[in-house]
Amino acid sequence: MNDFASELSKRLIRHAEFTSYMGRLQSVGAATTLPSKLEINVAALEGDVIGKLLYCASVFAQSTSEKHIGIAQTIAFNAMLVCQEDSIMERCSTILTEIGNFPSIKYAESHYGSKPSSLLGMVQRNVVEYLNTVRVHGANIALTDYQKGVWDSLKLGESLAVSAPTSAGKSFLVIEHLCLRAISEAEFTFVYIAPTRALLAEVHMKIKERLASHPDIRVTDIPSYDDTPGQIFILTQERFQVLLSTTSALVDLVIVDEAQNLSDGARGMILQNCVEQCFERNENTHVVMLAPGAEGFKAAVESLGMPHISEVSTTVSPVLQNRIVVSKTPSLNQIEFKLLTEYGSLPIGSMTCDRGISNPDSRLAAVALELGSLGGSLVYAKTPTEAAKLAGSLALGINDAGNENDELVAFIKDHIHPDYHLINMVRKGVAFHYGQMPALLREAIENAFRKGSIKFLVCTTTLFQGINLPARNVFLNTPARGKGDSQILDPALLWNFAGRAGRMTKDIVGNVFLVDYYSWSEQPMDKFSKFTIKSALTDSITENINDVLAVLNGSSFPGKPRDDSYRNAIASAGMLITKARQETIGDFLLRVAPDLDYLESIKIRESALSASKKISLPQSVVDSSWMLNLFALNNLMSFLDKSIKDGVIDDLIPKNPSDLSGGSLTHYKFIFNQIFKHVKGYEGNYGGYVSRIAVRWMEGRPYPVIIRFEMKAKKLQISKRRAQEQLNLSLDSNYKVKIIRDMNPNSVIKDTFDTIEDVVRFQLVQMGKAYIDILTHVLISNGLRHKVAEIFDFSMALELGVSTLTSRSLLELGLSRIAASALQNEIPDSDWDVSKARKALLEFDHTPFKFSRVILEEISKVRVALGGEKLVGV
Question: Which of 88, 154, 203, 324 would suit a FRET pair with 824, their CA atoms being 20 to 30 Å apart?
Answer without folding.
Answer: 203
